[in-house]
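[Q] Does anyone have a clean structure-token version of this?
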Amino acid sequence: MTEKGPTFGLNKIVRGKLPDMMRELGQEPEVTQLQGMEQIRAQIKKIAEEVAELDPTSPKFHNELADLDQAERDLIELCGGDEVIEPLRLADLEKRGGFLAGYFIGNLHLKPGDTWTEYYRRDPGKFPEIGVTNEACVFCEEIVADDNLILASGAWKARWDLYPATPGHVEIVPLRHVRTIEELTDDELRTMMVFAREVMDIIRQTDLVMQYELLLPDTNDSNRPLQETALAAAKSRGGVAPDAFNLGINDGPEAGQSVGHLHLHIMPRWEGDMKNPRGGVRNLFRHDTYKDL
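[A] Here you go.
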């Protein structure tokens, strides 16, 4: 009986000589020769894989770039070759320019009634809409100014709470101006906690003493005492990362929401920072005796 080894699912288009090279090594590739639209789609997927592998700090960066170049050239050949693609490329280059200038657009502000509004709204995952509000909103102002930014990803931004309840207190806010959880899209809801997990990891790695020393010069009479308290508490922790976190949303004014723009509080906690933490957020309610059980 012939002993069988492991089988791996590659499930991707490969260079033309690779199947024979595998056979020479005694391997048995299951090969299907794609054609037409199926081949084009597989080639597009291949290009996406090559892009994902690009790392400008890697010693193999130029090899990876050469792989990407070949994959793109082959896709062009499949779609009509340079005779079809090159005139289009040159026309677009003449009209809109190339990418070497390095211009990066963060937010794009449109006037009321701009016909491009519907174009950008077609793909909220690619172009998240920050929204319009007639009331002053500190979060929207920060988003537009790209200020107080810890991390931004997709529909979410993380900011330092300038009135910290604990050292490292952070809020994550949607780029769109929404007040409550009910106004979030399903995609925004799905990505919120994934983003929160990334932010918690950043907090663990942050030198909070240095962070509050950087924030303090911009404080005012209202928030300076809280930031000074956070700085003193961070110093007392000696640079030790948080042991735990409280996460919470004040979903509406009756629940304590003080800024009318949804935000998730992430508050680091350390062992011994209060006498009896049992019950966590339940301690907001004075008549709740859960922690005494």
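[Q] Thanks! Anything notable?
[A] The first strand starts at residue 151 and ends at 153.
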